[in-house]
Each structure stands twice: as structure tokens, then as C-alpha cells.
Amino acid sequence: MTTEKKNNQIKMLLIWLLVLNVLLGIYLSFFKRDAYRLETLKVGGAENMNLAVQLYNADAYKQQQKATLEQILGSMGTTDTTAQGDAAQPDTTAQAPAQADATPAVQGDAAKFAAIEKDGYILGNKNARITIIEYSDMLCPFCKRHYDAQTIENLVKKYPNDVNMVFRQMPLPQLHPTAPIWSQGAVCAGKLGGADKYYAYTAAAFKLNEFTTDNVTEIAVGLGLDKSKFTTCLTSAETIANVTAQVQEGNAFGINGTPGNLVVDNQKGTSVLIAGAYPTETFEAEITKILGK
């Protein structure tokens, strides 16, 4: 084979590669455009797509996704992680105790804590020195583990004179779109039936995987609450504002994920943040510090 013939074959090969690259580029450009159009339709139009892009680019959202992935991997034993974010730590007793993961005690606003305890529903001794305020999203898998383990509830039982709890709402609609419906239902259950119905509603709702107006109303009716009053309350502006205020309240304490737990010393007006579904020992370490035992 002559040198000229070899050169011609190389030239033809290069031409074919160039043509293939051009065709591939054209295909990908059309595919990308069609994929973008499809995603735009999924979220309900261009305006919503712009909002979705803003969400995906937000640092807070990226941190939330990172924390969730790390925690899932941690629960599978794939990686050792102490990430704390929107979804909480896996409830494994193999995790280190509270010292490294609880924020140092900080001076809070005693009046603010008192207002939360007055506005919320206390489980346990109302005059207890310590209040554990839990901010939760019913559809957060780590919140479910935290609740199923009855971590805070068992501490209230173990320290009946010293510890009580207040369960607060922190739905994360960017992760769990139907969570706000549950939170609104919880507010209404408490408003219409007091603490007993509030916590009974919470227990029933933790068994569901999504929330609709119908299934939360069914829970309420099953608890003996007035259906008409509940449905009116469920979507009222006042109820929605109440849930929004609770989320903002938690954010103000540095809670951006669930479950987020404040261990409050009512005597000193200080609090410690435990961000995650940690085991009982983590909370008990802080309780012991406060009580000096």
C-alpha cells in the first residue's frame, strides 16, 4: 500500500469522525431541548421551572440533599458520616454521644421559650425544669425513626418531674410536598381538641406515607373531632400562617432540618440544639448536665 493511499484513508476516516461528531452534536442539542421542555411541563410551566432552577442552585438545598444522601449511606453502613442537615441522623446507637453533635449551650430568650410552651402543647409536667422542643416533618424518614423509637417521649416518662416536651411543626415541602397538609391538620387537632387530640393525631399521622385533605380529615373524625370545623380550619389562612410561623421559629433557633431538637433549661433560659435523630443517650447527657446529676 502506497503512502498516498494510506494518507487518503486517514483523511476519509477523519472526515467520517467529523461528520459523526456534528451529527452527535445536533442530536444532543435537540435531545437536551426536548428534555428541558419535558421537565418544564412536569413542573407546570416556564415560571415554575425558573423557580425549580433557583431551588436546585440554592446552597441550602444542596446542603439538604448532601445531608440526606450521607445519612442514607450512613444508615446502610456504607460510609461513616456525622452530617447534620434537613433530614436527621440515622437512629443508631453506634453514633457517638451528644458532646460532639450538640451545639454548646447558648443564652436564649426566656420569654420566647415561655411563649412557645404556652402556644404549643406540652407533654408531661408543665412545671418541669427542662423542655425538649422537637421540630418535625411527618414524612421525613429520620423523624419517623425518631418517633418510632419514642426517644423524647421515653425521656419524659423517665424524668416525670424534670422533663417535658413540645412537638412543633417544620414541614419541608421541597422534599415532601404533602407535609404541610399534615402540619395544618395537627394545628387544627390541637385547636379543636387540645393536647390529647394533638398528640393522638400525631401518632396516627406518622403511620401514613403521604397526606391529603381526605386522609387527615379521616384521622380527625376518628379522634372524635367535628368534621365541619376541622375542614374549615384545615385550609384557613390563620392555620397556614400558624405553620409558617412555627417553621420560621425553628429557623430562628438555627434549625434548618428535621428532626431538630432544642433542650431548654427553663430555669436559666438557655438551650442546646441537637440536630438529628440521635439515641436517648445523647439527650440524656444534656439532661444530666442541666440537672447536675
UniProtKB/TrEMBL annotation:
Residues 80-103 are annotated as: Disordered. Keywords: Disulfide bond, Membrane, Oxidoreductase, Redox-active center, Signal, Transmembrane, Transmembrane helix. The chain crosses the membrane at residues 12-31. It holds the Pfam family Thioredoxin_4. One of its GO terms (molecular function) is oxidoreductase activity. Gene3D superfamilies: Glutaredoxin (3.40.30.10). It comes from the Bacteria. Belongs to the thioredoxin family. DsbA subfamily. This is Thioredoxin domain-containing protein.
